[in-house]
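To the team - S-adenosylmethionine complex, inputs and output below.
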Amino acid sequence: MTTNTSFADAAAMWNQRYEGESLLFGEAPNAYLAAQRSRLPRRGRALCVADGEGRNSVWLAEQGLQVDAFDIAERGVAKAQALAARHGVAVNFAVADCEALAWPEAQYDLIAAIFVQFADPAMRARLFAGMRRALKPGGLLVLQGYTPEQLKYRSGGPGRIDHLYTEAMLREAFAEDEIVELRCYEAELDEGPQHRGMAALAGLVARKR
Ligand SMILES: C[S@@+](CC[C@H](N)C(=O)[O-])C[C@H]1O[C@@H](n2cnc3c(N)ncnc32)[C@H](O)[C@@H]1O
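Output:
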């Protein structure tokens, strides 16, 4: 695991945010991910990227998937482990920086990347490449983030335009995959105190060819 400055900064910032006992993004899974339920594989391996306090990975385990999940924040991972125990499911959690991860090749039937917009364009390219590498051919990616229109709202997001997703950007990034669904839309978020209110969102479901 790397110990460079950006790792230390991001880990420290997110550990501080996760300090309290309450769940910053709530206990329920992200609404866009939950809405994809009928498309998800019934069994197999899933990876939850930067899953914070574990709400998405716990829900995916409850759907019958064998779930790996990681996050840079140790405190988030500890809360995620407690959430999995409360729900009576097993999730293989790790503390990891996506920049230091040895992305395995063709291992996962599903990858969920929900609000991972800590990545600037260069980091995002590496992150998306890692996720594509780790998917099996035929595996599904579910990605949720904010569009630039989110800058007019105060309902979450990095507040930096170069971190946000546009439809054109996502189409280009996943041009080699089958785009099952790609939507830019506005909706009321109610996902914990950090993600509450009207929001400008992008949702992508892509199948690796
Ligand atoms: C907005 S939160 C979303 C958490 C979770 N995906 C959810 O939807 O509840 C972003 C997460 O990214 C994590 N993170 C930030 N930089 C990271 C990095 N370089 N590698 C892995 N995780 C990172 C943070 O610790 C935080 O948990």
